[in-house]
Amino acid sequence: MRSMNRIHFDEIWQELTRILLALGFENSRAKRCAYIFTENTCDGVTSHGLNRFPGFVTAVKTGLVKTQVEPELVRSLGAIEQWDGMRGVGPLNAEKAMKRAIELSRGHGLGCVGLCNTNHWMRGGTYGLLAAEAGCIGICWTNTIALMPPWGSAERKIGNNPMVVCIPRGEDPILLDMAMSQFSNGKLEVLRRRGEQLPLAGGYDENGELTTDPNAILESCRALPIGYWKGSGLALVLDLMASLIANGDSTRDISQREKETGVSQVFMAIDIESQMGAANVDGKVNAIIHDFLDTPSLKGAPKVRYPGQGMLATRRENLRTGIPVEPELWQTIQRM
Amino acid sequence: MRSMNRIHFDEIWQELTRILLALGFENSRAKRCAYIFTENTCDGVTSHGLNRFPGFVTAVKTGLVKTQVEPELVRSLGAIEQWDGMRGVGPLNAEKAMKRAIELSRGHGLGCVGLCNTNHWMRGGTYGLLAAEAGCIGICWTNTIALMPPWGSAERKIGNNPMVVCIPRGEDPILLDMAMSQFSNGKLEVLRRRGEQLPLAGGYDENGELTTDPNAILESCRALPIGYWKGSGLALVLDLMASLIANGDSTRDISQREKETGVSQVFMAIDIESQMGAANVDGKVNAIIHDFLDTPSLKGAPKVRYPGQGMLATRRENLRTGIPVEPELWQTIQRM
């Protein structure tokens, strides 16, 4: 691994804000969008933080992502609403949608927002954490361009459709943030560049054999859905639900475009702390998590971890010591 | 495979009804419970139909499942309610809970019921299909006794927590019904008896190697969660959410009992046909499904299928020609 700079959160945040302001973002929106990219990086999800920022800037410059629009309400039915993202800024649209789902949950116990016609939300975990901070269980997912073959085929047809579940627990929420592919294309490409193998089979080679060779999987286009047929089915129903609830485009529709845009997303918030009391939620979650952490690990293996545990540790470390950034990437960003 | 009797749906239904009436079930509840067991068998899910019926009868006789109780409302907050299953009949409790979620969705756009203190629901798909028949997207899941080790351990600590998503589409809904383990213990035991291997790695042997040998997996207790760490994390958050939303027992609590009882379940219904119109729902779903079915299959592989497609074909075949039942099992049931 190349040596990394360690840069303070605020310095990255300011730098990204400067760039977004120059692109014509309104002041508070520039700050907020830059914050999300910075926080994703701080949390160790650089693939959906700084690494994606140059591509995001290009998408803004080419007009794929529109900076001046905000989501508009299309239809409301009590606890569920449908919004149009107007092809705006994915992370800001998603944040607004989850905030609205949280508002809806205050009156109805739970709230749901379907958001059509939006752009890549970067890291879905951002919006799950938002719900948990508000004392809600947060559930959200997005469809994507076709990235995987369904089980039994070699043709890309289904998205990897990341799904997020976040459970509030004071400063230490539980955050599951997972795509339906076993490994992301980004991960496969990184390992191919490094000449490394995957830790476990991540797809099929051209001969239909399971393989840990990232190159073979990228060549065959046969990345493995989690759990073989199960993840394939789950990806399909997530796309169906997103297209229906958002009344938006499906993976099939999106894949007919040259670049991924106009995706459909769903945001749910369940106001669990109002229903049970924050102390009761913490008590119940802690009883499960403490017991879970007591599970003996395999000989030589690291301790068993709950989803999001590593992320929170990384966040705290990086807030203290600075966020590791590849020097070349940082230079690229400073020159933007 | 042993030769099977083919028995008509109504004959099985009447036979099971007779047995439940003799156990003290009220007439309409006996009929309905027998219907669910029969339909599960008819749909090809014999593992959660007739195969489970003798065990269910034992659970009733020993008092683990209480036949005379009905779920009671504990707390209501708009679109979300919490019910106590009173350790009653799992399938009838679950049906009532999904029916209530559908009712809630009529006024609020979506409805959610958390059900604590209930028993095994047999096949979760039953309740998803119920929602789809009512024009709703149905989502439900249950926790279970500890059945799998979390990723990185060899100690059983997490449930396989089956999850169901059902999407309405006239007579042909899409039904995903999946546990978080790659293969069920039932499947492993069947293959062990037959001396057969799994089609793909389903767990680890005692040496920590991935294996297709069902015996090795049953010995090591290391069944594989779908997608390794991903299914392990998903099983954990499903348990957390079920325990919180139902204010009920977690997998940890349930596993302290001698037998699985007092599980927690969640039922959600999204009234999508009221929101979009049934024709629009069908149109959107069909556009996705028809395109999906067009995916070329791998050489020599069967055609790509959507979740629930095989089940619906099996149902129609069995309604026409009778339901295949193992002769010994049928004798056992007739003598009950």
Kindly report the name of the CATH homologous superfamily of the largest domain in chain A: Malate/L-lactate/L-sulpholactate dehydrogenase, NADPH binding domain
> How many β-strand stretches of chain A?
11
- Beta-sheet strand percentage of chain A? 15-25%
Largest sheet of chain A: 7 strands, mixed
What's the level 1 CATH class of the largest domain in chain A? Alpha Beta
The dominant shape of chain A is globular
Largest interface: A-B, 74 and 74 residues
The amount of helix of chain A comes to 40-55%
The CATH topology assignment of the largest domain in chain A is Ribosomal Protein S8, Chain: A, domain 1
- The total count of helices of chain A amounts to 13
Q: Given the helix and strand composition of chain A, which structural class is it?
A: alpha+beta
Question: Multimeric state of these chains?
Answer: homodimer
Overview of this protein structure:
The structure is a homodimer of 336-residue chains. By secondary structure, chain A is an alpha+beta fold. The first copy, chain A, has 3 domains: 5-62 and 315-334, Hypothetical Oxidoreductase Yiak, Chain: A, domain 1 (Orthogonal Bundle), CATH 1.10.1530.10; 80-178 and 230-294, Malate/L-lactate/L-sulpholactate dehydrogenase, NADPH binding domain (Ribosomal Protein S8, Chain: A, domain 1, 2-Layer Sandwich), CATH 3.30.1370; 182-224, Wheat Germ Agglutinin (Isolectin 2), domain 1 (2-Layer Sandwich). Chain A has 13 helices and 11 strands. Chain A has a 7-stranded mixed β-sheet, with helices on both faces. Chain A has a two-stranded antiparallel ribbon with strand order 1-11. In chain A, helix 1 (9-22) packs across helix 2 (27-42), helix 4 (90-108) runs parallel beside helix 5 (125-133) and helix 6 (185-194) crosses helix 7. The longest helix of chain A has 19 residues, at 90-108. Chain A starts with a strand and ends with a helix. The model of chain A has no long low-confidence stretch (mean pLDDT 95). Chains A and B meet through strand 7, helix 8, helix 10 and helix 11 of A and strand 7, helix 8, helix 10 and helix 11 of B.
